[in-house]
Amino acid sequence: QSVLTQPPSVSGAPGQRVTISCTGSSSNIGAGYDVHWYQQFPGTAPKLLIYANRYRPSGVPDRFSASKSGISASLVITGLQAEDEAEYYCQSHDSSLSGPKVFGTGTKVSVL
Amino acid sequence: QVQLVESGGGVVQPGMSLRLSCAASGFTFTIYSMQWVRQAPGKGLEWVALISDDGSNKLYADSVKGRITISRDTSKNTLYLQMNSLRAEDTAMYYCARDNTVTHALDLWGQGTMVIVSS
User: I need a surface site. Which of B29, B34, B44, B49 has the fewest CB within 10 A?
Assistant: First the structure.
């Protein structure tokens, strides 16, 4: 019952730019809460990719960038590489009764 | 080495109980809130529970409220998830994760422990 909606899949050729959207509501992203992004490869644990809307942890390539506006956030991969093929999740805080932490529905990025 | 290592998963029958553990090492466990996140086979991530750094504040997802208890033992640097009255829909990989004190992003994850609820 995710309250953050992402496209199920996006794809692109190597070197292309892809964008993953994360749409919430006035009780989460729209309320000003930060959005974080995670990358998950099959069979492995998620890894923090972007925190606080736009910051990259040490070691994350700068081809990954993100932003937030209104009730939505976006993750952009510029110069797509084969090793970027993975599942990506956004996450934020939610003030509704369903729970304070919410994840997006997840987006599979495929490199053509 | 900074890491989280989960254990305690397995196959249980519906209605049974299970306790998951998450051993923390390489960092000051007592200053971090901790969370459990689960992922059903082929599905997305679902937040399960959170416990504050001192253990005084606990929050749960509606889907597990009343059946699951999160706790921590600072003397053992270990996080726990007590799961009772297990249902088939609790079948998932369970991850523990560290809540960054400033950003509240989940900046460290364990490898996960699998729970299968089946008769």
Answer: B44
Cα–Cα separations (whole angstroms), residue A34 to A23, A29, A87, B12, B70: 13, 7, 20, 37, 24
Chain A contact set for B62 (CB, 8 A): 97-99
> A44 φ, ψ to 5°?
-125, 165
Task: Name the least confident of A65-74, A97-106, B5-14, B41-50.
Answer: A97-106
User: Which residues lie across from A9 on neighbouring strands?
Assistant: A108
Average pLDDT, integer, range A32-40: 97
How many CB pairs (< 8 A) connect A and B?
Answer: 66
CA nearest to A98 within chain B: B62
User: Is A89 in Cβ contact with B103 (below 8 Å)?
Assistant: no
Question: What pLDDT score was predicted for residue A98?
Answer: 64
Q: Is B34 left (phi over 0), alpha (psi -120 to 50) or beta?
A: beta
* Neighbour tally for A49: CB within 10 Å: 23
Mean pLDDT to the nearest integer, B21-33:
97
Q: What is the DSSP string of B6-66?
A: EE--EEE-TT--EEEEEEEESS-GGG-EEEEEEE-TTS-EEEEEEE-TTS--EEE-TTTTT
Across the interface, of B46, B50, B103, the residue whose CB is closest to A100 is B50
